[in-house]
Amino acid sequence: VICTVPPEDCIWTDWIDVSYPQYGQENGDDETFETIQNKIPNWNCAKVENISCRAEKYPNIPIEDLGQKVGCDVNTGLICRNKDQTIGGVVPMPVCLNYQIKVCCTPPLSPECTTATTTTTPTETSTTVTTTTAASTVPPTEGGSSATPTAPGST
What ranges does the record give for the region Disordered, renumbered to this chain (predicted)? Predict the structure, then answer.
């Protein structure tokens, strides 16, 4: 079972838009992972490896060129606050545009990887060591022998 996923194996989501900016100084657009998880409970992203953000009305213009102060990163998602905006750029009023994000998620680990398991290996000593598993007793192999022990009473 492979319990680590290389970053190149992340899976891109569709565009996500769970928040629409409202007018008012304290409002804005909140496409953070916490908000997404609250609005889409079955959203299952073990780790965000990459993120892409865009304005809904200007999908082909990089967000850096829109003249708005917007945070877009793999640790939190996207956040735009109206109070951080100024008049100018593409937007004639100090209000956040409606943004969308898509993320490249590492798939969740398989159940075998999230369950703690303990394995023990008998150590080599000068005395005979037996390992008991369920109801059977199997002596360890000694000296590299691959002989299989026989059950009592069998030939």
Answer: 115-155
What is the tally of structural domains in the chain?
A: 1
Using the structure block, give the residue that is written with the tokens 């490896």: 49
The residues, any chain, with a CB within 8 Å of residue 96's CB and separated by 6 or more, are: 21, 27, 28, 29, 68, 70, 80, 81, 82, 85
Q: Provide the token pair at 71.
A: 């945070």
Residue 30 within any structural domain of the chain: yes
**pLDDT tens by residue, 9-63:** 789 999 999 999 988 889 999 999 999 999 998 888 889 999 999 999 999 999 9
| Residue among 138, 52, 58 at smallest CA distance from 90 | 58
Contact indicator for 49, 88 with CB cutoff of 8 Å: no
The model's pLDDT over 57-100, given as tens digits with 9 standing for 90+, comes to 999 999 999 989 999 999 999 999 999 998 765 555 689 999 99
Coil, helix or strand for 78?
Answer: strand
Residue 110, sorted as left (phi over 0), alpha (psi -120 to 50) or beta, turns out to be beta
What CA–CA distance (Å, rounded) separates 58 from 68?
A: 13
pTM of the model: 0.63
